[in-house]
Amino acid sequence: MTLPFDVAAVRAEFPILGTEVDGRPLVYLDSAATSQKPRAVLDAERDFLETANAAVHRGAHFLAAEATELFEDARATVAGFVGAAPEQLVWTSGATAGLNLVAGSLGYAGRLREGDEIVVTEAEHHANLIPWQQLAARTGARLRHIPVHDDGTLDLAIATDLIGARTKVVAFPHVSNVLGIVNPVAELVALAQSAGALTVLDACQSAPHLVLDLPKTGVDLAVFSGHKIFGPYAIGALWGRDEVLDALPPFTTGGSMITTVTLDKAEFLPPPQRFEPGTQPVSQAVALAAAVRWFGALDRDAAHAHEVALERRMREGLRSIDGIRLLGDTDAAERVALQAFDVEGVHAHDVGQFLDSRGVAVRVGHHCAQPLHRRFGLTASVRASAAIHTTEDEIDTFLDAVSGVRAFFGVGA
Question: Could you confirm whether 204 is annotated as catalytic?
Fold first, then answer.
């Protein structure tokens, strides 16, 4: 059943949004870093721990069977959220772990060697850059990147020249965590497929805002993190096409991912269990399933329209404030409600502290995207990111606070 979207009703599901900061209502604009959790998620994890807590896949008693059923039901639920089959979804501790799993497995499989190329973008989060740097260093492959234009969009003309016969992997973000721009997935996938290259999608910033059907995107592998889509920490997923996962060897090894073990060798289970050794994040998986059920039950079209309006209000408001420079300021591309900016003459950390004194929580720093900030001549920026529970009044409170930053620090006229 689809529930009508009402921002007041949505907000009522988040206990933490009633927090006050120095007597001011909390305005939480740091959802791109980590989302807040609705009661359905908090209750689901607590209920599991109180009534069904046990190790999965390795016990014959009642609680073990109950925990295993809930764990695998959670896999099916989360897989369905991204249009996938359960056997295509590997539990990880987050997107970073998933990307390291893919890069490590490709290295073990000998899929890259000297002279091969890995293509990323200039707008990568470090989690989708450093694993590929390390893989290139270990194998002798060359790491190349697609640059961004001044407006933050990817330079597809250069991408067309870069992706060719030597390209083995093309890895890119669905949405930049700094620019908020939705990247052209279809075009990049087409270029990669024409070269026979594997595509890896970082969907961390798209999963909270866009309706995802990962198989339909054409990518081969994708990762996302639970704590960015209203779920708990320490849980995420790697999705992969059947034939791609089947061809990858395990990256980490241990119990629960094997069929037969002798003192000399081991044989491994098929995916997804092949990639899930050791103790599993059971309560986190159950809570993540609760998160996507709660989120998925909302009128997603109405929720998206609400976020589109928030994004426009935020960006247009920032544009109107003297001394503000937006990163990725373009109307030509689809966007999510996320905006990074620089305040002329004031360090990003000082801006963040000033806004915090007004009850407004934003992100400051390089947002794990140092090369992208360097591209724009910065070492740090301020990032405001909204969610479905954000209101227009909160955006206005944020904009009012930003408009007072330079005067407070004695900068400008």
Answer: no
